[in-house]
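W.,

You were right to be curious about this one. When I first looked at the sequence I had no strong expectations either way, so I just let the prediction run and decided to look at it fresh. Below is the sequence, 64 residues in total, followed by the output.
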Amino acid sequence: MKPHRLWRVSCSCGYERDATSAWAATAIFRLHVKLILGARQEEHTLTIEEPPADTPASGQLPLV
């Protein structure tokens, strides 16, 4: 299995998650938005950070 550079999805509420691709990061982003709708009335600011090109590729994601 080829190692991946990890994308970071984070929210102002403290939620953070790693993803192996831009597609996976977007899916995590959308799922978090669905989960928070109606749950809390505070403002959420979600960001997706692209992995730096000079970082070494990572192995497997942790099972969390």
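Here's what jumped out at me. The beta strands are 7-11, 16-19, 46-49. And, maybe more interesting for your project: The chain has a mean pLDDT of 77.

Coffee later to discuss?

I.
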